[in-house]
Amino acid sequence: MSGDRARRRGLTRRDFLVAGGGATAGLILASCGSGPEGNPAVSGSTSGGTGAKYEGPNVSLAFWNGFTGGDGPFMKDLVTQFNSETDNIEVKMSVQEWADYYVKVPQAVASGSGPDVGIMHINQLATNAARTVILPLDDVAQTLELQEDDFAPIVWNGGTYNGQRYGIPLDTHPLGFYYNKKLMEQGGLDPESPPATGDDYLAALEDLKSKGIEGHWVSPFLFLGGLQWQSLLWQNGGELYNSEGTAATFNSEQGVAAMTWLVDLVKNGYSPANVGQDADTIAFQNDKNAFNWNGIWMINAFKEIKSLDWGVTQIPQIGSEKAAWASSHNFVIMNKEGQDPNKIDASKVFIKWVIDHSVDWAKAGQVPADNSVRTSQEFTALEEQSAFAEQLPYVHFPPPIPGIGDIDVILETAVSEAVLLKKEPADALNDAASTADETLQENAEKYGTG
To answer: Over the chain, what HEC string results?
Structure first.
């Protein structure tokens, strides 16, 4: 992957693994801050605002995030606009790679420095909540008059852990189905009618194969092959873990069926046998791969390639029900010892303002979490983002279990072994589940949840 494409993409495999916690296992272990008790974000602050307006003294907010890719300028513009419209709050945005961000934030909070407000992926909330890096935000949500009816239920509920809210959702970024219209035409398919069912999908791949086109390149990496497999697992009615989060269940009949479907794409010649990292996406944009299940973050990247004739829609329903992998960016407030109550009040105002203006964030390649923004005429005019938004009723997030991202590396091994035909799908998943169970037990002891 070229450096230019990495910048446009905004989410690398390393970023993805770190967002899940896999690359930072053991780095967010020291308890940070002094706990939520007595903190004005929890107990209710009356220092300078109600969430809609801040009337306290001038404050400067440190706002950290990992928007180093094509999404960064969009957030920068929002911060600039907020600062221009707000007299007594100045937001200073610091951007770093997600991999570095998730290491630095706990360390900075523990020392009483670092950000006042930040962004975290949905699968980081439980880990950072368990280690008191971030504050419970139930009172903040109440102050901002935010409730479940304002959001898609899964997005709203995804911001909670252990009965408390720790994240205020900004967006959702699901997996979608990109299709190369030029290759579809070459394969005798209607480029304006992408396949939507399992039977139609395999028939389309067979038509493409008859014209010498490998239609769906299967990545042996978690990003993106593993995200496709997880989507298929859920489509088959399976789950990654049991309801208590104490045991892996991804090696179920449903999980094996999902992995077998992907492996059969390789065995039947619809995909090359050994797809390199990001090679599936590069092949798509170079008119060599007709179908690419990828994230919403690719919209602007593909738009920059003027020669590429493409469309995007919902992931085909291969299994018995609709489902798609997704993640979400949430606002968090840090649990810094001695935090200024005025900064917490100012953070509320900033969070609410960005959510209210999140149609501009949607242009970065995101689905706004707020229903009123998502149903606005300005958002519905964003054709590609609106296509992704149609999946919200059936997207799936990882469960809110501290340290759950540690399992991502284990899952990647299973996907790689199966897709590269080194192990049968059942064997690869059974071996991974055994290792995952050990990790889940270790994490339960580490985070005090067992």
So the answer is: CCHHHHHHHCCCHHHHHHHHCHHHCCCCCCCCCCCCCCCHHHHCCCCCECCCCECCCCEEEEEEECCCCCCHHHHHHHHHHHHHHCCCEEEEEEECCHHHHHHHHHHHHHCCCCCCEEEEEHHHHHHHHHCCCECCCHHHHHHCCCCHHHECHHHHHCCEECCEECCEECEEEEEEEEEEHHHHHHCCCCCCCCCCEHHHHHHHHHHHHHCCCCCECCCCCHHHHHHHHHHHHHHCCCCCECCCCCCECCCCHHHHHHHHHHHHHHHCCCCCCCCCCCHHHHHHHCCCCCEEEEEHHHHHHHHCCCCCCEEEECCCECCCCCCEEEECEEEEEECCCCCCHHHHHHHHHHHHHHHHCHHHHHCCCCEECEHHHHCCHHHHCCHHHHHHHCCHHHEECCCCCCCHHHHHHHHHHHHHHHHCCCCCHHHHHHHHHHHHHHHHHHHHHHCCCC
The values of phi and psi at residue 75, to 5°, are: -70, -35
Task: With a cut of 90, say whether residue 107 has pLDDT above it.
Answer: yes
CB contact at 8 A, 443 and 284: no
Asked if 334 contacts 114 with a C-beta cutoff of 8 angstroms, the reply is yes
What is the percent of the chain where pLDDT is above 70? 88
133 and 224 share a domain? Answer: no
Domain CATH code at residue 147: 3.40.190.10
The verdict on 154 and 180 lying in the same domain is no
Residue 61's pLDDT is what? 98
Structural domain includes residue 371: no
Question: At residue 71, what are phi and psi to the nearest 5 degrees?
Answer: -80, -20
pLDDT score, position 51 = 61
9 lies in some domain: no
pLDDT in tens, 54-65: 999 999 999 999
Residue 387 CB partners (closer than 8 Å, separation 6+): 176, 312, 313, 314
Which pTM does this prediction carry? 0.91
pLDDT at 35 over 90: no
Which residue range(s) make up the domain with 343? 26-170+328-356
What is the per-residue pLDDT across 203-218, written as a single tens digit (0 to 9) for each? 999 999 999 999 999 9
Looking at per-residue pLDDT, the higher value among 287 and 36 belongs to 287
Number of domains in the chain: 2
Residue 164 belongs to some domain of the structure: yes
